[in-house]
Amino acid sequence: MKKRNALGRGLGALLDDSSPIENRFDSRDPKESVSSINEIPLDYIEVNPFQPRSHFDERALQELADSIKMQGIIQPITVRKLSDKQYQLISGERRLQASKMAGLTAIPAYIRTADDQQMLEMALIENIQRENLNAIEVALSYQRLLSECDLKQEELGDRVGKDRSTVNNYLRLLKLPPDIQAGLRDKKISMGHARALITIDDVSLQLEIFRQILAKDLSVRKVEALVREGNKEKKAPAQPPAENGKEIAKLQGRLSSHFGSRVQVKSSDGKKGEIKIPFVSIDDLNRILDILDM
Predict the structure, then answer these.
(1) 260 — alpha (psi -120 to 50), left (phi > 0) or beta?
(2) Paired sense of beta strands 37-41 and 106-111, if any
(3) Beta-strand pair 86-91/45-46
(4) What is the mean pLDDT of each run of 10 residues along the chain (294 residues)?
(5) Which residues form the ParB-like N-terminal domain (predicted)?
């Protein structure tokens, strides 16, 4: 009895099917090959220039390579055909890189037609659907879909299966200072921490609370309380300014930006007063002393 193709029978069937995938690499038109699996030499495949992900975990990549050595490629990659011996990756860069690490010379692939915009959209959406993508990578992918694929937020939500508010929450992360974005990307803070910090308009206060999170391992609830306290303080009626109060306010803003802390400048008569530079840890103090070149 002729063995049926394992495709369409579920992941279990694929795992149980130990027979090699038939080598069907040829020079047929891509439109004729869309529904088939083609075994394509790795040397013929170039990486996707629209790949939104710039970092792959080396340990996870090695684990995937080890799995490929044992089980082979379970899920084919997807490519588009540029010429008889030139293909461009649409999705599956981790599988492609791991296959090279595993010593394979060819890889099973679906071939489909796509223009540059479709390539970008497919790569971004495929990337967003990965469970291990960090929040900043998701936000950047959403932003690229909006700006480069000319999508509206409602359309974007439909494409990625998220409601508009969820999409907007991710996009707002890109308004955070670079240090906080990096902390979220590197999992030093959580999405909950970041969403609390977003509600602060004062960048110096955002950075101050961010450093407190790192130094004291603050919970999301504690950060939310600090944010509420900071916002109340900001909204409190200001004391009548001194004669040169505007200049002092400008100076306070410049110093806060320079030191990355919520610097306070107080003066009762506009002639004398004090400057307070807060720090949340010894490392933070050393950072301030470095700025002061002391």
Answers:
(1) left
(2) antiparallel
(3) parallel
(4) 39 35 42 62 84 70 90 85 85 88 93 69 67 78 75 77 84 90 91 92 89 93 90 57 66 77 74 79 77 74
(5) 38-128
Active site residue 126: no
- Give Cβ neighbours of residue 111 (< 8 Å, ≥ 6 apart): 30, 33, 34, 36, 38, 40, 78, 79, 80, 81, 87
**Rounded alpha-carbon distances, angstroms, from residue 219 to 224, 225, 282:** 9, 10, 21
Which residue(s) pair with 111 in the sheet? 79
Place of tokens 């011996």: 85
Active-site pick, 39, 93, 121, 137: 93
Q: What would the pLDDT profile of 200-258 be if each residue is shown by its tens digit?
A: 988 888 999 999 999 999 999 999 999 888 777 665 444 545 446 677 777 777 787 77
Pair of tokens at residue 116: 């540059």
For the chain, residues classed under CATH 3.90.1530.30 are: 21-114
Q: Six-digit token pair at 256?
A: 């806060």
Query: Which CATH code fits 21-114?
Result: 3.90.1530.30
What CA–CA distance (Å, rounded) separates 65 from 98? 5
Distance CA 178, CA 180 (A): 5
